[in-house]
Amino acid sequence: MENEQEKHEYYMRMALEEAQKAREIDEVPVGAVIVFHDEVIAKAHNLREHSMQAYAHAEMLAIQKASEAMHTWCLDECDLYVTLEPCMMCIGAIVLSRINNLYYGTKDPKGGAVDSLIEIKTISRLNHHPKVTSGILAEECGTILTEFFREKRKKPKRDKNQFKITQE
Q1: What's the confidence (pLDDT) of residue 162?
Q2: Is beta strand 101-106 parallel, antiparallel or unpaired with respect to 78-84?
Q3: Rounded Cα–Cα distance for residues 160 and 81 (Å)
Q4: How many CB atoms lie within 10 A of CB 135?
Q5: Strand partners of residue 151
Q6: How confident is the model at residue 31 (pLDDT cuts 50, 70, 90)?
Q7: pTM of the entire structure?
Q8: Burial (Cβ within 10 Å: 0-12, 13-18, ≥19) of residue 114
Q9: Residue 74, SS3?
């Protein structure tokens, strides 16, 4: 790639492809890609609805895949590209896994824990902070989310009383 910006856009487009996969299966369209020395080692998209797991965010799934690929929890030479500013849970996993650089597309004013709702860099007692770059393909990353939620608002909501609780 010719320059750093092109490289970041290249990987963010991969993350957007993952976000599109999520959208196609009616998941919130967020995608993540983890890169080790310019090689993609993990890709993932949101799967909360399909897995029925609150933690099945794109970042969490990508970190899990990257750790398996690298045979370690410590991803200190890895970069994470994600289409949406990570939430508290995800930034916690990013910090704990020692991700080197975090690149994200669009801000999340309601749940972002990097720059919006919480500013992780202001917590000085953490023993690791990833370097953060935001705004990569922000318009495209924001548009896929806006369109998804616009479509969702047109559909009737699920009746949560229809769910049966099972006990074992």
Answers
A1: 62
A2: parallel
A3: 34
A4: 13
A5: none
A6: very high
A7: 0.91
A8: buried
A9: coil
Instruction: Show the tokens assigned to 147.
Output: 């369109």
pLDDT tens digits for range 62-83: 999 999 999 999 999 999 999 9
Q: Which residues contact 65 (CB under 8 A, 6 or more apart)?
A: 34, 41, 42, 43, 44
- The answer for residues whose C-beta is within 8 angstroms of residue 129's C-beta and 6 or more apart is 95, 120, 121
Closest CA to 29 of 43, 21, 19, 44: 19
Helices 138-154 and 4-24 pack at an angle, to 10 degrees, of 10
**Per annotation, catalytic residue among 39, 59, 77, 85:** 59
Residue 112 buriedness (CB in 10 A; 0-12 / 13-18 / 19+): buried
CA distance 78 to 99: 6
59 labelled catalytic: yes
Type of residue at 88: M
The pLDDT score that the predictor gives to residue 153 is 87
